[in-house]
Amino acid sequence: MQNILYILLVMITVHEFGHYTAGRIFGFKIEEFAIGFGPRLYSRKKADGEVFSVRALPLGGFCAFAGEDEDDGAPAAFNNKKPWQRIVVLV
Question: How far is the C-alpha of 74 from the C-alpha of 3, rounded, in Å?
Answer without folding.
Answer: 43
